[in-house]
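To: structure desk
From: M.T.
Subject: fold request, one chain
Message: Could you run this one when you get a chance? Sequence is below, nothing fancy, just the single chain.
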Amino acid sequence: MIDSLILLFLLFLGIPFAIAQIMPDKKWLIAYTIFFGTLAIALYYNHLTTPSYRQGNSFSYIFGKIAACLFDTSIIVGIINRATVLYLSSINVTINIWLIVSLVLLNLMLIVLIFLGLMTVY
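Reply: Done. Structure tokens follow.
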């Protein structure tokens, strides 16, 4: 049971990030940002407009809250990461191992900071 929940949380974190990484150019990334940004805003709006007596305080509410925050976090980090790589490739920077390590560390910092920020807002 716990293993399947961990796998589900990793999928919520990984799938939108992976989709952002396969965007071939700026136009596709902008379309991805508009589509998934609208989806994230709709999720947050639904959370805000749901009355407190219908939100619940059980495991399912906490599970949904964490899943929504992970989903939003992976969208934001994926867009920032892909925009950075597209910018660096447009100014002809060679992508070496240190750049990849820096991007991975940037992603880890962003995941922690954005996730904690979203948990306080939600």
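Reply (cont.): The mean pLDDT is 82. Let me know if you need anything else for the meeting.
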